[in-house]
Write a structure and sequence with these properties.
The strands form 2 sheets. A 5-stranded parallel beta sheet has the order 2-7-1-8-9, sandwiched between helices. A 4-stranded mixed beta sheet has the order 4-3-6-5. The longest helix is centred in the C-terminal third of the chain and has 16 residues. The chain contains 9 helices and 9 strands. By secondary structure, it is of the alpha/beta class. It has a domain of about 140 residues: Rossmann fold. The structure holds guanosine-5'-monophosphate. The site of guanosine-5'-monophosphate has 14 residues, from β5, β6 and α4.
């Protein structure tokens, strides 16, 4: 059986990774989301076993001691982790695995699976990101600030990624990720999005400038 791809999708909170990921999966039944475990409470539209496995900290700690995680982090006062069993379940079918995880976990996945395709989703500007995150309606003023405070920190990890995709227009971003997946399946690098050619975008974002 042909091995599937490991696709890691990272990017700042609120940039639209979840929406991009859902759209891509609705177009490609071969791509499956690695459902993470988290101790964060579900948002109003989130379903246990679909968006996350929602568990408490005791159960999370048990899973750590059972060595059940490929990687895990503590972020925004909650724990998040990729379950080894989840990766195996998808890989054993020969499907592509999509991980929607933050940069520290992403790097840990890259260490275990050097062939992982690392995609960094970025906003058009910090302003645009803040508007999107606020409009999502899921954050308190405090958690909004906490998530925004991570923006520059996350941008500073950009050179660990293979591709950047700007999520200004959703269907363009989905298209871009699908082109990357196609190119990677064919074993060809898609130069349009290659991160190494585009690091100047990250510098602009850090200065508060718009990149499109
Ligand atoms: P949210 O609370 O908005 O769902 O997720 C917060 C951050 O945690 C996002 O950047 C998301 O990609 C990341 N995340 C979700 N699951 C995991 C995971 O299993 N591992 C890691 N390292 N990050 C995760």
């Amino acid at each position: 059986m042909k091995k599937g791809l490991i696709l890691v999708l990272s990017g700042p909170s609120g940039v639209g990774k979840g929406t991009i990921s859902a759209r891509i999966r609705s177009h490609n039944s071969n791509i499956e989301l690695s459902i993470s475990a988290t101790t964060r409470s579900p948002r109003k539209d989130e379903v246990d076993g679909v968006h996350y496995y929602f568990i408490d900290q005791n159960r999370f700690d048990e899973l750590i001691s059972e060595n059940a995680f490929a990687e895990y982090v503590r972020k925004y006062n909650s724990s998040y982790g990729t379950l080894k069993a989840e990766l195996e379940r998808i890989m054993n079918k020969g499907h592509d695995v999509l991980l929607d995880i933050e940069p520290i976990g992403a790097m840990n996945i890259k260490r275990i699976y050097p062939e992982a395709v690392m995609i960094f989703v970025i906003p058009k500007s910090f302003e645009a990101l803040k508007i999107r995150l606020w409009n999502r309606g899921s954050e308190t003023a405090e958690s909004f600030d906490r998530r925004n405070a991570d923006f520059i920190k996350e941008l500073n990890t950009a050179n660990n990624y293979d591709y950047f995709v700007v999520n200004d227009n959703l269907s363009d971003a989905v298209n871009a990720v699908e082109r990357i997946v196609k190119a990677e399946r064919e074993g060809v690098k898609c130069n349009d999005f290659l991160a190494s050619d585009q690091l100047d975008k990250i510098e602009k974002l850090k200065k508060g400038e718009s990149i499109c």
